Amino acid sequence: MDNSSIHIQLSVCQNDGSIGPAVIGCRDDFDFTKTFEQSFLSIAPSSLFILAALARVTDLTRRPALVTGARQLQVLKLAAITALAALQVALIILIGQSPNHQQTGVPAASLGLCALVVFLVLSTLEHSRSLRPSPILNAYLFFSLLFDAAQARTDWLSAPNSPVTKIFTASLGIKAALLLLEAHEKTRWISSAEEKIQSPEAFSNIFNQGFFYWLNDLLFRGYRKPLSIDDLYTLDEKLGASQTRDEFWNKLEHEQSDNKSGNPLLSALVTSLGRTLLAPIIPRIALGCFAFSQPFLIHSVLDYLQTSNSNPNHGYGLIGAAALVYTGLTVSTSFYWYFQERAIARLRSCLVTAIYRKTITNKATNDGSSAITLMNSDVVRVQGGLHDLHECWISVIETAIAAWLLQRQIGVAFVAPLAVVLICAGLAFAMSHLSAKRQGEWMTRIQDRVELASAVVPRLPAIKMSGFAQKVGRLMQGERLKEIASAKRFRVLTTVSSVIAFTPILLSPVVTFTFAEGLNISKAFTSLAFIHLLCQPMIQILQIVPQLLAAWTCFGRIQSYLSSGSSTEAQINSEDTVDERADKPSDLLVVRGGKCGWKKDAWILEGVDLNVRPGMLTLIVGGVASGKSTFCKALIGEVPKSMGIHRLQEKHVRVAYCDQDPFLLNSTIRQNVLGFSHFNAPWYEMVIEACQLKRDLGQLRDGDQTVVGSRGISLSGGQRKRIALARAIYSRPQIAILDDVLGGLDSRTQNLVLRDVFGPEGIFRQLNTAVIITSQSLHHHQSMDSVVILRDKRVLYQGKVDDMPNSDSILSALQVQPSSGDDPSTAEFTAKPPVSESPVAPLAEHKREGLGNMKYYFAATGATSILPFAIFGLIVAFLWNFGAVWLERWASSSQRGEGKGPFFVGVYFALQIVCLVTLGVYFIYEGLFMAPRGSAQIHLQTITTLIRAPLRYYTTVDSAVPVGYLAQDMTIVDNEVPGGLANVVVTGLVVVGQVVVIGAASPWILVGYPVILVVLLGVVKVFLRTSTRLRVLILETKEPLFKHFQETLDGLLTIRAFGWVDANIELNAKILDESQRPSYFLPVLQQWLNTALNTTVAVIAVAFVALATQLKTSAGFSGVALVSLMSLGEMTGHLIRLYAVLQTSTGALSRLRGFDSTTHGEDEGRERVVPEESWPQGAEINVESVSASYQAEDESTPTEEASSALRDVSLHIESGKKVLICGRTGSGKSSLLSLLHGTLTPSSGAISIDGIHINSVPRPTLRNRIIALPQTPFFLPQGRTVRENLEYQDEDAEFGPSTVDLPSNSGSQNETLKTALESVGMWTHFETQGGLDAELREDGLSHGQKQLLSLARAVVRVRTAGKRRGGIVLLDEFNTGLDEEVEGKMLRVVMSEFKDFTVICVAHKLGTLDGVDMVVVMGEGKVLETGRPEELMGRGHFGRLWAGSGR
Known about the structure:
This protein has 1447 residues and is of the alpha/beta class. α15 packs antiparallel against α19 and α16 packs antiparallel against α18 (469-515).
């Protein structure tokens, strides 16, 4: 073979040496020029790859090795790269020797070799230092394969026998093999155990990510069985809160302190999430490019169909172009939304962790209850804004490009759609300003409702006991109706905005073609495609702008919250640390002239001087409202105004704090004692022993693993305080601040705790802890080193105990009085059912899915609403699709020169106007009629079920669950279900119409519809089963987040005092990450379905183009079908996004529906007897052999002892008697009261009042007729007035749909309320603050004042009782924690206001017995003895209790 034989034998084309891009005069005029191919398909990709690869190499060199082994895979990669490089060198030599090669040939081959060298370096690093196959290498190999295939085709057409052609083709095969090797995943070779447990997403190659193949295992796992949270993949660590929270918070604090940014939150988010926010940009640009390719494809196909002698190669090219365009649309859409969902997930991690961090560091006086609304509703709105953020800027660009291309197609007529778009844009922006204001009002109403629910739900047992269930229910429903009214005002604007948004797409075509000249089929449908591309971005902008403004409003609310004042340091408040103020350098704390208060110049306490040294025990004594609790809070830095309090030791002094109302987690007893400390068994046992909890735990089946319930509902008051004390001791503090920690304990328990905790050999002495303890009594002063005595907010005495004068003023100020309460000799927990350890509701309700949820919703909206809703949707869908068919008839007529333009314009205009008007009516009907009615009815049904629920529900289900129903689920039902349902229905009908039009245009494609339908049904079936469970998991995993926020708000002071802020922030991040798992995987799974549907559209499009070009179908109907195909992909994607919202929201419907159907009311299945209106005026009570248990009837227990709260109790109480019930904790005292007001149902025996068995009396009637004061008073949340907290409606009706709107029968109660407050001595307190209209702030009242207000409520009830002049009053431990002065005042009110009533009082603390007619002593659920107090005082059980009280 001579030298000439190795030269490339190119067939010379006229323009192969130019950019072209198409050749002329060779290769059948259906190819690119060689210069174009080498420049754009070789040089450009190689250059971009080298730049990207070098940046990646720089990054990888700083990373450790993560993959070990896989030597065989690495050797194969190196061998393939080496072989490819050898072939590339051969190509350079052969091309250089060819006399006819293009100028770009050698540079292209040389740059390809350089790219291979960089490829080798990057491949080596990626192999060992990256978990997943390299996206850069895979993308480069994939696209270079496509480009090389085009160049190989050119070589085979121009020089099939050339060595260059054969070597280039061989390199193509090796490159394909190398792609397979580089795409191979490395899961089995990961060296770190922690890395191995990551999600398959972390190991997936770019192809698995683009088509979401990595989700297949999860999909089929969810199809085979119900998914649990443990079945989900772990969250990608880059999305986790732990990765983002600190960096984001530091940047936020920097921005806030810098004061240069107008919006520090936005600046911090942009700097923290910059790369994540920018990641979707490239695939979105690619998506736009492929979308703009569609009109050109339509134009080419229609021209081909109208040309009689078309080149068949052009037909094949059109088929390939259709495959490229629609495949590109599918892949770019997949990557775009994949990156978007990752950005949204990271945004939530940043915002929720920041809100929590702000909540836990917020001022104690700030209302933090809004944090729950911000964390849920507001963050969701902000996520929705980010979801379409990139559509804003790209839509503007796409609109401009579409306008330019349309001008090229139809000339000056392009102004018509542009004018329509601009007019609509102006109207939309005008509406958006109003929408933002209405949105803010709506969110405020949501926040008010959620705050009310959060405050009321945990206290429902006390509310029902007090007879206020009707009032509270109406108040909650009233807040819901206010919220719905605000929502309707907002929906009016959004409906108008929606109609404006759809106006361009419906009216632009008819306006444009009215002015267009020379209309034919090709021009009409190509122009229609450009009009679609011009209007669709504007529609998106018009639809997105209200969402963005709503998101911006919520963003502003979050910004305001994060910018509010923070707490002082969560340790003791400090001023200048000057040692000369202390008597000794060892002082931990010095108070000099100490003052503290909640308002400026309104000191609660003044004149305190105190030195606190290690090992020193200080007792602060004072009556109700003397300032003890405020002083304790001032010591831990939680009072806004304080002076003279100085910490002198190192910054991080270990502090323990026990609030007067102990804060307990809804967790086990052990976890409450440990807090965030590590478990130390010997130390733990010592603490439990010292706090006298050993015997209590021995009475429990689960011991210290018993769950205490919400706010410690399963424990008595004394047990809660002892657990809180144990927690304080276990933390080994340097300073312990204990607010009335001994209150509510009986004398024996007090003495044992004093000895083992505070005594000379006590545990605090051993720890050398400085202790500050408050009390209402001097009974404990002998164990203390110093004492501070307070009265009327001033200091009577402060100094050493031994130096305390025995003056009358001190003795009269403080009556030395112990209390009687818990006794370890018989202490036991009441046999209540165990509280669920999980705050998640029972899962049975989640099995009722699909149509059942929609039936539930339509039942709430009214069954008659379905027909108009469906009819309007069908009309819109028909008219939407028929417009294109009518345009085809118009274009055909114009092409034939029939001159019927005005007729076609008039009908076309009428069709579009009717479609637009019907669309507006559709949204108005759904948004202003169906949605408000359904929202109100579902909320009413939920709170009715909640209020009617039995006691067992409140004791076994964490309060976070029903709060979640009312906060999270109800907000979803109101915000997302209406719009989601309306959009899914109308969009789905439009998509069905488009599929029908495509089939009508090419009947042969109908053959494939059944196959496609079967495949799609299978895909959707698998998807629905998995996604249904995922959306349930989203709601379930949010409940622990709600719970943690609520518990943080409840225990804010305790958490900060103990120094648990960082630990709780870490815990919040872990809970959030658990919540993020289903919240992230569900939308990604929805994108998997979107990709599957887009692939289906691509198959239909390619099949249609193939059939149209090969069978030469009608150009007119082909144009209709191609335009429908163009919007079918967008409509399908839009339908998936809408369905995603609806699917998640129906999870809320499912939970609410399950709650309503599985939670049975107290009176269900009982015979009801409504007594006369005057009942129970006689108030004679008979209890006959009654036994009762807190266990459900279907629950078995080991023994009757373990399950019965009362056993064979018989008791007769005469009319008008004053009865004292006493006994040890767990003796059954409160259970007896629960029987009388219907909370507890007897399992045997009977109870009658005035001869009527109370079990047959409806519970609301019983509670309305019997006046009861719960142990813990409840008050409405902040913002409510004194009047709202005291007013009472005397009615027997049960709360529900039939009674919620009943008018009040109480009339004006101003005088009644005023005299009731005067009778308890509280009127003067409120008179100066505004009287009955003054805001009642619970944190501004002492414990005694709260009890007095609770008693005032009872007085109001007596005076609004109508014909009843007697009755029954139940007082449950009303005197616990009260000083003798307040207790005496309450007893005097009881004796005067309830003199004609039978009064039954349960008491731990035995005070005065004046006026008591009968004493009942209980023990172990039985009546031990009864009689007059003077008869029992010196003997038996009561005698021992009386003697132990110190009286």
